[in-house]
Design goal:
The chain has 339 residues and is of the alpha/beta class. It folds into three domains: 12-73, no CATH class; 90-147; 163-328, Nucleotidyltransferase, domain 5. The chain has helices spanning 22-39, 44-51, 55-68, 90-102, 108-117, 124-137, 215-228, 247-254, 271-285, 294-310, 322-328; strands at 163-164, 178-187, 190-198, 205-210, 236-238, 259-261. A six-stranded mixed sheet has the order 1-6-5-2-3-4, sandwiched between helices. Helix 8 (247-254) links the parallel strand 5 (236-238) and strand 6 (259-261). It is flat. The N and C termini lie far apart (77 Å).
């Protein structure tokens, strides 16, 4: 059996042109390493494995190196040979930019209508491209400046326990994807925050009033939810509010409760808790005349919660109460997403 070894000098001592881009220098290093290994008796397969290239890749770069020298190892531009030119005139461009300066709060849909009244027919996409060009060149400002933002709002990046709610994901049994939200109740310049959790399957509801909508209060509410729900809290679903981050997210992670966050500007998957917010706003807060304090409101909400679960018929549950529905479907509950 013949054993071949790669000596240290095969991997060191290469002198590469520093004026080349980093990727070109790396390709030149691999070509020289391949030639060195082949000169020392290594097979082609072993040398290719050492440089991490396929045979076709080696032949392609070696051909360009022999034809153009080290500059041939630079990546070619991927810009198309034929680039479509703007289909609007300079006058139309100036008109759209002038309208944006006069009405900085308008987007491309509204700005398309104003030139149309003067006989300038531009599509919505064309107006959008003109605006994008103006923002890129610094001629106009984006609409975000009218909303108090100096830069475009970046989408949330999920690096912790929370995850984005997948499209089409729905609960199949009580306790799954329990929707958690809060609403504000005001009276005489005073404000209370009502945290609410609703199970889409069975419409079981948990409510608790706090003085502020903070992550710490949301964490306390999570403990109340686990204590009051008649079934285990399997997973939770929230919007992108700051009160459902930090302590709240850490508590979900510690309790091993999956936490899903809705996409921005998409409240539809939170329909059950949003409908419950309207229900308590109409049936409880509009009729509540007790002391406007956290303790008094929580005592009154406990009474309303018993009415909600044991007396109030729900159309989504075929006019049963949530407790009746839970007893009837304890073994094989059917899925209900209406509110």
């Amino acid at each position: 059996m013949q054993i071949q070894s790669l000596r240290v000098k095969s991997h060191r001592g290469f002198k590469v042109n520093d004026t080349l881009p980093a990727e070109a220098r790396e390709r030149l290093r691999r070509l020289e390493l391949f030639q060195t290994l082949r000169g020392e008796g290594c097979s082609e397969a072993t040398a290719l494995a050492a440089i991490g290239w396929a045979r076709a890749t080696l032949y392609r770069w070696r051909k360009r190196y022999r034809r153009d020298g080290p500059s041939g190892l630079c990546a070619k531009s991927r810009r198309p040979h034929h680039v479509s030119l703007p289909r609007w005139s300079a006058a139309e461009e100036r008109k759209v930019w002038a309208l944006r300066r006069d009405f900085p709060f308008m987007g491309k849909r509204k700005l398309r209508v104003l030139p149309l009244r003067e006989g300038i027919d531009l599509s919505e996409s064309t107006v959008g491209r003109i605006l994008a060009k103006g923002v890129r060149l610094g001629r106009i400002e984006p609409c975000a400046f009218c909303r108090g933002r100096v830069k475009v709002k970046q989408p949330r990046r999920f690096h912790g326990h929370a995850r984005r709610l997948s499209k089409g994901e729905k609960p199949e049994r009580p306790g799954e994807l329990v929707q958690i939200d809060h609403l504000s109740a005001s009276r005489d310049s005073k404000q209370l925050k009502e945290f609410k959790a609703v199970s889409p399957v069975g419409k079981q509801m948990v409510v608790q009033v706090s003085g502020r909508a903070t992550a710490r209060n949301a964490k306390r509410f999570l403990e109340t939810v686990r204590a009051q729900l008649p079934f285990p809290l399997v997973s939770a679903q929230v919007d992108g509010g700051s009160e459902f981050r930090a302590d709240f997210e850490q508590a979900c992670e510690d309790l091993k409760i999956p936490l899903f966050v809705l996409p921005p500007k998409r409240p539809q998957p939170d329909g059950c808790v949003e409908r419950a917010n309207d229900t308590t706003r109409v049936e409880f807060w509009n009729r509540y005349d007790g002391d406007f304090t956290v303790e008094a409101a929580n005592r009154a909400l406990d009474d309303y919660r018993r009415f909600y679960h044991q007396v109030r018929p729900h159309q989504a549950l075929d006019f049963m109460t949530p407790d009746e529905y839970l007893r009837k479907n304890k073994d094989s509950p059917s899925q209900s997403h209406m509110c």
